[in-house]
Amino acid sequence: MEFGKTAHIEDIDFSLPPDDPMNEELWRRLALAPASQQLAPPPHAPQLYVGCTQWGRADWVGKVYPKGTKPKDFLSQYVKQFNCIELNTLFYSLQPKPVIERWAALAGEGFRFCPKMSESISHKQQLRNAGQETALFIDHLTAFGDRLGTSFLQLSESFSPDLLPVLCAYLRALPRDFQLCLELRHKDWFLRKDFNELYALLVEKEIGTVITDTAGRRDVLHMRLTAPVVFIRWVANNGHPKDFPRIEDWAYRLKTWMEKGMREIYFIVHSPDEFYAPDLALRAVEKFNEVCGTHLKPPKLLSPEPPPLTLF
């Protein structure tokens, strides 16, 4: 991930900020919701998913995938190691339904695909006159069946609060049953706190937030929760020593959120060199199981060497 990339991390404070005060409203709503409006708890509620951003990594052969694995078999091996993936493919090109169905058929019952909405919607049209493209995108997602996790809408860095009316109109028009998390990037969204209309709408429609933890943009680590689902894009530094206490900090924060009623958490591991992402995902799974009491299956890396102590 290039967003928030910086070559100088030694002086960066990577500690997690406190929760945004608005989270208390979410916890209150979850606590007061009538039993008839609450989702039936799954076997190991709440659900925690940890994964990476791609499966097409030739340099994972012999590390994540068995030696000799062909590119056509990468996904079938990936789904054995992780329980979700941030699916950026559909951002660039909406695939035919038969292709999506083949992907879904390779995944086990507990696996989730998390598609990024098309760039034609979010970046090129900036949500204007995007109803037809949105309907087509959502229709294609039905091909995932029950392997579909949350989708996420990433707005460009040029999408400023001046476009708040456009954003709210777009979100209001989305189907009620479409699970979505919203990623804001323009700096002014985080300098001001007076976007009550937007956050009230997110709470009303149970649209979650994307929280990005990256070195060069600490403002997007906003810790605002608007729904019982959250999508965390955690950007490591190739196994720099600062990465490991960051994983532990997240483990304790996620434990708190799960105890308060968070139902779905997606924790996606990025790294400047994605070769190291599986090692860091393994560390995250082990720490989350230890702290949160979850029962995630750790990936079995074929060359389980610790990430090198490198600079970003």
Could you please describe the fold and organization of this structure?
By secondary structure, the protein is of the alpha/beta class. It has one domain: Protein of unknown function UPF0759 (TIM Barrel), CATH 3.20.20.410. It has eleven helices and eight strands. It has helices spanning 23-32, 74-81, 89-92, 97-106, 119-124, 131-141, 164-172, 188-191, 196-205, 243-260, 277-292; strands spanning 47-52, 84-87, 112-115, 151-154, 180-183, 208-213, 229-235, 264-270. An eight-stranded parallel beta sheet has the order 3-2-1-8-7-6-5-4. Helix 7 links the parallel strand 4 (151-154) and strand 5. Helix 10 (243-260) packs across helix 11.
Describe the structure in brief.
The chain has helices at 23-32, 74-81, 89-92, 97-106, 119-124, 131-141, 164-172, 188-191, 196-205, 243-260, 277-292, and strands spanning 47-52, 84-87, 112-115, 151-154, 180-183, 208-213, 229-235, 264-270. With 312 residues, the protein is α/β, with parallel strands linked by helices. The longest helix is centred in the C-terminal third of the chain and has 18 residues, at 243-260.
List the helices and strands and how they pair.
Blueprint: H1 23-32, E1 47-52, H2 74-81, E2 84-87, H3 89-92, H4 97-106, E3 112-115, H5 119-124, H6 131-141, E4 151-154, H7 164-172, E5 180-183, H8 188-191, H9 196-205, E6 208-213, E7 229-235, H10 243-260, E8 264-270, H11 277-292
Parallel strand pairs: 1-2, 1-8, 2-3, 4-5, 5-6, 6-7, 7-8
Give a quick set of tags describing it.
34% helix, 312 residues, TIM Barrel, 8-stranded parallel sheet, alpha/beta, 8 strands
